[in-house]
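Ticket #4471: structure output looks truncated?

Reporter: J.K.
Steps to reproduce: submitted the chain below (147 residues) through the standard prediction queue, then opened the result file.
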Amino acid sequence: MTDDAYLFLVDGPASPLGAPVAVVGDLECLETPAVRAWLDAQGVTAASGALRLLPPEETAAIPEGAEKLPVPLSDEELLRLRHALAPGVHARVEEELLAYRDCAGDRDALLARAVAAGIAPHRIVELTGEDPATVTAVASKAAGRRG
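Returned output as attached by the reporter:
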C-alpha cells in the first residue's frame, strides 16, 4: 500500500471506479507542475469525467495498464475523497460481507474436511485466519467421530 492517492484515467465517465476529481473539489496537487504536465500529456483536464482519484487504501483496484499518477493529498482533501466514494465503497464491502456469509455457513464442514484430509491445524489457521481454538475444537470433534 502506498501513502499517496492516485489520479488515473478510466475508459469512460460511467466507470464506477474512483471518484471524479471534479466531485472531490479543489485539490492542491492539481496546481503542481508535475500533475499539470501529466494531465497535458494525457490530453485531459481536471474537469474530465475520465480522470478519477482513489485514496491510498483503494489503489490496488486501479486496472493494470491504466495511466496513473501518485499524488499527495492533505488530510482534508483525503476526507473529501473518502466521502465522495462512500456509497461505492459501502456497496463493495457489503458484497464482500455477503460472500463471506455465504461461505462462512459451511465453515465447520470445511475445517472438518481439512482436518480429515490431514492438513495440520496450524496450517489451517494460516490459510483461513480462523482462531486456533476454533480449529482445534473442530479437529477434536473430527477425531472423536473417527475414534
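Triage note (M.O.): checked the attachment and the full C-alpha cell line is present. The mean pLDDT is 84.
Status: closed, working as intended.
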